[in-house]
Amino acid sequence: MAHGLITLPAFADRKDGVRHFFGTRHRPAGPTSDTASVTQGTPGDPAAGAPVAVVSVKQVHGTDALVLDRPVKVGETLAGGWDALITNRPRVLLTVRTADCVPVLVHDPMSKVVAAVHAGWRGAIAGVLPKTLSILRRRFGSNPLRMQIGIGPSVGPCCYEVDEPVLERLRAGFPDWRNVVREVGGRKAMLDLQELLWRQAASAGVPEEQIRTVRVCTVCHPALFYSYRREGTVRGTMVSGIMRIRR
Ligand SMILES: [Zn+2]
């Protein structure tokens, strides 16, 4: 970890023409409000990967993706709610905000497209990640065999107890559900959201060695992360992002 940001160099790096990060409670000081906006990127050397625009949208625990395959203007407002952002434009930083939910970053170096996904249990079970990968395939011609996926810090299986209503949805929406829960009695179970997303990406055809997970629990590490579960209220959110550097 450098300067409060977590990166997965094996997932994407400057040599791949991509910059990415999973935020902590220390950095970045990103958009804290729920308003959708395109804001000015931090000035700096374009070669070092400074964004010209930072995209942040209202997240609604759904599965819809906002596809930005057009020039993005600083100051424009994006009316609507989305839990996935996709772009093939360089220097447009896509951001998602999480506090226990899972941030997932996607990169396809061949079709030169990136995506940022926000996945809580609702969105994950409803398929926000496979749906996003399918948009990459259909609209940008991405091949899952070339995709790279980074699954960020979130509530871990150590701390994520769920009850019957969640388990019911899980069993209905995810055939492989037995592999992502550990039953603890009283019709409750510990859910491993990162594992669920990992399996969805693998089922979509992404090679296992190209799906990497930051196996750190946001609830267990108060010095690093905000956690809705631990704090019982939204004290803040972590911002994660991905951007293509090159044209
Ligand atoms: Zn934990």
Bound molecules: zinc ion
- SS element count, helices: 5
Low-confidence parts: none
What portion of residues belong to β-strands? 25-35%
Q: Quote the distance from N terminus to C terminus.
A: 28 Å
User: CATH topology, what is it called?
Assistant: CNF1/YfiH-like putative cysteine hydrolases
Overall SS class: alpha+beta
- The average pLDDT is 90
Count of domain modules: 1
How would you explain this protein's 3D organization?
The protein is α+β, with helices and mostly antiparallel strands. It has one domain (5-154, 194-244): 4-Layer Sandwich (CNF1/YfiH-like putative cysteine hydrolases). Helices cover 18% and strands 28% of the residues. The strands form three sheets. It has a six-stranded mixed beta sheet, with no helix packed on it. A six-stranded mixed beta sheet has the order 5-6-9-8-10-14. The chain starts with a strand and ends with a strand. The model has no long low-confidence stretch (mean pLDDT 90). Zinc ion binds at residues 156, 158-159, 217, 219-220.
Draw up the topology in text.
Elements (H helix, E strand, L loop, with lengths): L4 E2 L11 E6 L13 E4 L12 E4 L8 E4 L15 E4 L4 E7 L3 E7 L4 E7 L1 H6 L1 H13 L7 E4 L9 E2 L1 H10 L7 E5 L2 E4 L1 H11 L7 E3 L14 H4 L6 E7 L3
Parallel strand pairs: 4-7, 5-6, 10-14
Antiparallel strand pairs: 1-2, 2-15, 3-4, 6-9, 7-15, 8-9, 8-10, 11-13, 12-13
The structure holds zinc ion.
The site of zinc ion has 6 residues, from loops.
